[in-house]
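During the no-cost extension, the postdoctoral fellow (Dr. R.K.) reprocessed legacy sequence entries with the updated structure-token encoder. One reprocessed record is reproduced below for audit purposes.
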Amino acid sequence: MLEYTNKYETISIVGMAKNAGKTVTLNALLDEAYENGKKIGLTSIGRDGEKQDIVTSTDKPMIYAYEGSIIATPETLFQKSEARLEVLEITDFHTSMGKIVIGRVIIPGYIQIAGPCSNHEIMLTNLKMKAYGVDLIIVDGAIDRKTTASPSITDATILSTGAVLSRDMQKAIEKTVYQVTLFQLKAIENLSIRAIADEAIREKEIAIIGVDAENEHTVTSLNLKTALNAGQKIAVALNEDTRYVIIPGSLVSKTILDIVKTSRHFKHTTFIVRDATRIFIDYKDWIYFEKIGVSIRVIDEIKLIAVTINPASPEGYYFEPDVYQKQLQFYLKELPVINVMA
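Re-encoded structure tokens follow.
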């Protein structure tokens, strides 16, 4: 699996649910990196590496860190690590378990990791670990915190999924294919539109891009702090000349539903968000939006490099591994699907 990471300096592993095989995926990458002489930097959003899941009370695979690895984790977990760690730096990034400490593994062993609380602090932590000469930084994602897949945080992403999503294999596959669809949303190609959208998002402004009689772009900023519960107000501002609506924060189902109920102009309008981690739209709503012609694009594309699967659920049921893998691979086409539990 390490072969898919060679082009990148930082990758994230994002789990679609607990027990989807994310930690097994992480350990597989750490094993391969050690065998290939790669020096790894490791941090996380959320907590990982504990023997038992603190939410579900189910047994979890622990994280084994090899000698020379660079770890960024809070003080409390730093002290609990079975591996022997050398303190390299105590950062100013605070968490509920203490400041984030960057350390080097002196004697290999099991560790627990958590990470900074904000995306900005994760980016700074990554830069600090790079300064210690790592070949690859892995950011371990957390359930419902898919922002680690954002291109502003990591260069590429591995998605972990599995039978835990549903007892019905087809439903589990549908949910995974939908998440992949979101992660593979294409960026706006027009450079001038990208520049306008990028500035609006940085300024946290909802903006509308239209065209005038000379086919030149016009930009109108709406006096709205957020798109949440503002769908009808956005819809009223649309007209026949509208081409794009820029959403600086999250894009949710209700916003789009209110727009399509209020204005017919959505059919020639493309909605732009920073990246796919900002989209919170239910699968059924997404299918409906596709049917009626809603268009959504991003500024920054997520580079999804592989999907890993766990055919077994902690509830005791499992999918036939080969059938599950082949069917998911059929839908995901060229994207590698790897059974990390094999």
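The chain has a mean pLDDT of 91. The longest strand covers residues 84-95. The remaining legacy entries will be reprocessed before the final report is submitted.
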